[in-house]
Amino acid sequence: METALTDSLETTATISVRDLRVNYGEREILHGISFDVNRGETLVILGGSGSGKSTLLRTLVGLEKPSSGQIWIKGQDIAAIPPSEMDAIRKRIGMSFQGGALFGSMTVGENVALPLREHTRLEESTIEIMLRLKLEQVGLQGFEYYMPSQLSGGMKKRAAVARALAMDPEILFFDEPSAGLDPIIAAGIDQLILELKQAFRMTIIVVTHELASAYLIADRMVLIDKGNIVAIGTTEEMRASTQPRVRQFLDRVAEPEVSRELDYLQMLTEDRRSK
Ligand SMILES: Nc1ncnc2c1ncn2[C@@H]1O[C@H](COP(=O)(O)OP(=O)(O)O)[C@@H](O)[C@H]1O
Ligand SMILES: [Mg+2]
Questions:
Q1: Which of 29-38, 76-85, 157-166 has the highest mean pLDDT?
Q2: Nearest protein CA to atom 26 of ligand 1, as residue
Q3: What domains can be seen in the chain, in order of their start residue?
Q4: Phi, psi of 94 (to 5 degrees)
Q5: What does the buried/exposed string (b/e) look like for 41-63 if buried means 16 or more CB atoms within 10 Å of the residue's CB?
């Protein structure tokens, strides 16, 4: 087992988490968790509310400091490096967080260009081209002069994704990407995530409690409960799991309404694939 973990550190894993513990004050939220994220895969982090999903994501991108353990991102232990070096790593990852809203006083284009203006010395004309490209990637071509308040919920989410893509990250993190969106718009965001994976071969980590979405986008899933990993495996393995806590979580949410949504999502994907 030990050897297998070491091997994966050197080969396919883009992110390796080992014995990760995170506290808020006296209270431990993540109790020593370990897992790998392989290059180019979409890993979905599932779990009930308050189980520690957002805390895990925030820790992976360096916004929370672990109390112990290791987080290897592309061969560097980000739990051990000084904050100054974390900046360089953060430039290579994109984040789209639940609360990561757009700046209301800037146009959509300015929002998307912000990371480029902050972190690069690119010519203004180059930045203009890049921001249009990013907006195109998320299906928002022509919207650069709009204000965020003029966009629908789903479009705002897309614009935030465009901003996360600005620096051409190799790894993308999403926290509840379709929270608060109606099912059809949410399905569109799932499609966008699938496209980013397929067209740009990005490594994508998505936190969600939406099972329909998880089944659609995940290569592998990790189920977290109260700060511990209950199970990790491919979507098929999770579906077939007989572990009581996995069944409890997966079956609890699979109520009729959700299944209908799932059927709809599958239809969308098949429709895309057949094109
Ligand atoms: N900044 C914080 N300070 C203190 N406690 C927090 C903070 N953020 C989250 N928590 C607590 O940590 C636990 C895990 O929260 P969170 O990671 O947001 O869970 P999830 O995203 O799975 O809903 C919850 O009990 C929550 O109340
Ligand atoms: Mg959360």
A1: 29-38
A2: 50
A3: 2-92+170-273 (3.40.50.300), 98-169 (no CATH)
A4: -110, 145
A5: bbbbbbbbeebbbbbbbbbbbbe
Q: Is the pTM of this model over 0.70?
A: yes
**Ligand 1 neighbourhood includes 51 CB (under 6 angstroms):** yes
Ligand 1 test: best mutation among 20, 26, 27, 29, most atoms within 8 Å of CB? 29
Q: Identity (one letter) of the amino acid at 173?
A: F
Report the 10 Å Cβ neighbour count for 213: 24
Strand partners, 27: 24
Q: Is the pLDDT of residue 274 over 70?
A: no
Q: What is the pLDDT of residue 35?
A: 97
Name the closest-CA residue to atom 24, ligand 1: 50
Q: Which residues is 3 bridged to in the sheet?
A: none
Nearest CA to ligand 1 atom 9: 55
- pLDDT at residue 260 tops 90: no
Pairing of strands 76-77, 68-73: antiparallel
Angle at which helices 153-165 and 183-200 cross, to 10° = 20
State the amino acid at position 159 in one-letter form. A
Residue 236 near residue 59 (C-beta atoms within 8 A) = no
pLDDT for the residue 271: 55
Looking at the CA of residue 51, tell me the nearest atom of ligand 1.
22
The confidence score (pLDDT) of residue 178 equals: 85
- The sign of the dihedral angle between the CA atoms of 216, 218, 220, 223 is negative
Q: What is the CA radius of gyration of the chain?
A: 19
Residue 133: per-residue pLDDT:
94
Residue 1 predicted with pLDDT over 50: no
Q: Where are the beta strands (DSSP E) in the chain?
A: 13-24, 27-38, 42-46, 68-73, 76-77, 93-96, 171-175, 203-208, 220-225, 228-234
